[in-house]
Design brief:
The chain is about 90% helix and about 0% strand. The protein has about 120 residues and is mainly alpha-helical.
Length: about 120
Amino acid sequence: MNQQATLRSVRLAPIAFALAAILILAGCSGQPLSTREKGTFIGGGLGAATGAIIGAAVGAPGAGAAIGGALGAGGGFLVGNQMQNTEAQQQQTQGQIQQQQTQIEQQQREIEQMKQQNETE
């Protein structure tokens, strides 16, 4: 039993180290996480937890967590990337709408000026 506990802790050490490194690097960036990064972290965490649970059922929680974490991070990245691209498109569309609104207002002012000029003539 003691040898099995040691083997498990040796297997889990790289996973724990990788997760700690990711959290430290994310915390030191000084900028808020992007949607893509949030998706990657959430997917990785959920995948690792799910993988550990499934892995525990077959006697390999460390391997399950590693595989689940990698798959979850990949899936989370894809979802987060798509969401971030959608947000960027929405921001671009909003910018275009604001620009067009400004042009409409300018044209309305010009029309009013023309009307006033015609009335005075």
